[in-house]
Amino acid sequence: MNIAQQIFLKGNLQLSELKVTKEYYELVDYLKNYPNLQKIEFSRLDLSKRDDLLQDLKNHRKLRELIAQQCNINNLLNIHNLDNLISLDLRTNNITEIQIISQLSKLQFLDLSSNQLTSLKGIEALKSLEIFKVSNNKLSNIDDLLHLENIIEIDLDYNQLSNIHGLKNSTRIKKMQINYNNLQDLEGFPNNSKIRVLQANHNFLKNLVGIGMQPCLGKLIITSCSLESLKGIEGLVALEIACLSDNKLKSLQGIEFIKELKQLDLNNNLLQNIDGIQRLVELNVLNVCCNKIKSLNPLQDSINLQNLFVDNNELTSFEGIQNCVQLEEVQAKSNKISNLQHLNSLKRVTFINLENNNVYDLRQLLFLQDLNQLSQLWLTQEDANSSQYANKICSHPLYQSYCSKVLPQVQYFEYNVEYDRGAIFHGCKFNSSKVNLNQKFDVETELSEELTNQLKQQ
């Protein structure tokens, strides 16, 4: 610290905020000179050997916010009498117990993430607490939260919790994160709460029983939990976003009650059909990739659907989406699709991905001719089990020429161009009006049945 900075600190007795970093560690020696400090921030300092400094804190009775991240603090002996404190951030320290902070009755924000806590004993006295973050600890029980009825946001990620009974009285809660724990059910969830966002990824939940009636819950994220059914979801009448990927769902029974649902992610489950989705008329984003779905017929009434992701299923056609006239994006790679007829009515679609399907007739591209908004079309990608293209039309020598003539609106084709040197360029971008193709093809000439059969046999 230079002389000018020292003079400033010595003379500025009314200083209200002070931040001390590793680069300016000597600032801590001036701490006792500023009784009017309302905010102090320590960052990445080793305070474990500065008992004198921590003792000086008790004289700052006007202090309202204290931040001490990564400071190697292992106890709270010199913090408990800061009775005007409303915000305390002690992330990434070595704190093992918090019972002594029970005197901080005005505390509204408390962050104890990444410490060594096994118990929350003492927190029950913090009646004013609204935001509590205690992720990355060793908690197996949160019953000490039973008397905290004013909590509106809580983060319990990365602990060892098997239940959430301690939250059953937290009816004001609006956001809860409880990812990476050992939950087997949601029993104890506060009924009729004000919760709007719930994240419970990477637990051991089999269903949603226990979640109860939640008239305000708008966003539900439960992934990688081994969910086998949606039993219990019927109480989430205001749900708009549901992410339920990487589970073991075989049925969507119950989803039909969630009439306000707008975004639904069911990626990587065990679904063979999507029955029930026909009731979700407000749906605009649907992801059912990596399932075993054979039909899209339940989407016939999904007139508001804008983005559809159906990669890695067992579809043979797009029958069922012809009424989804708001669709802008269709991701359908790695299916068994050979017929593109039902794409013809999607006048607003701009992107279609059909890689690794079974399109063998060039004339199928004629169904895309009237899609004036279509700007990207992906068709190639080699079959993983052979050196041939999965979509046989991509192997035909007239493929590129035919695409440029039939689909002049498309600005980006995903195709391969082989040069004499053997180089392969993927995803070449071009404007068909500027491309000089060696082979010419008359679109008016009808492809013969013989040619179609040849393509099919390749």
TrEMBL record:
Name used for this protein in its record: Leucine-rich repeat domain-containing protein
Q: Write one Pfam family the protein is assigned to.
A: LRR_4
Q: Which organism is it from?
A: Hexamita inflata
* The keyword Repeat belongs to this UniProt entry's keyword annotation: yes
Protein origin, superkingdom: Eukaryota
**Gene3D superfamilies recorded:** Ribonuclease Inhibitor
Keywords, in A-Z order? Leucine-rich repeat, Repeat
